[in-house]
Design brief:
Lipocalin, 8-stranded antiparallel β-barrel, globular, 8 strands, mainly beta, about 10% helix
Length: about 140
């Protein structure tokens, strides 16, 4: 009788761990190249500062923190004018993911439902200085 009660008591603690969002993306090294699968794990996607772990097609793992991009750094809307991220209520999360001995990726994600963070859907990706891109829709 004690064991079932202990399990029931510990069950709420198991749900208290950080939420993780898994993303599938496509990695493209050059125009016309066949895209390859890349994976990402986003820890605490509902926050404005989630951690991104990016696993590229070659198996390298890069880690970094994303942060809410200040409004003045939001990309302009098509045709100029008020930044899209301010006009339609979406927000941009940006950051750098890196690993020792590997080129860092600069990442930007458009969050469609800021109240839910990345868990509310969006699109974005990461790019290296040499133009290798990884794109995600989530």
């Amino acid at each position: 009788m004690i064991r079932p009660l202990l399990l029931l008591a510990l069950l709420p603690l198991a749900a208290c761990g950080p939420r993780v969002l898994t993303l599938d993306g496509t990695e493209s090294a050059a125009a016309g190249a066949t895209p390859r699968l890349a994976l990402a794990r986003v820890t605490q996607p509902e926050t404005t500062a989630p951690q991104l772990e990016l696993r590229t097609a070659d198996g390298a793992v890069r880690v970094g923190q994303l942060g809410l991009l200040p409004p003045e750094e939001a990309p302009p809307s098509p045709g100029g004018g008020i930044p899209l991220a301010l006009r339609d209520g979406t927000r941009i999360l940006a950051g750098r993911v890196e690993a020792p001995g590997s080129a860092p990726y600069e990442c930007r994600f458009r969050v469609l439902n800021p109240a839910r963070g990345m868990g509310g859907g969006g699109a974005g990706g990461c790019v290296t200085a040499d133009g290798t891109r990884i794109d995600f829709i989530y």
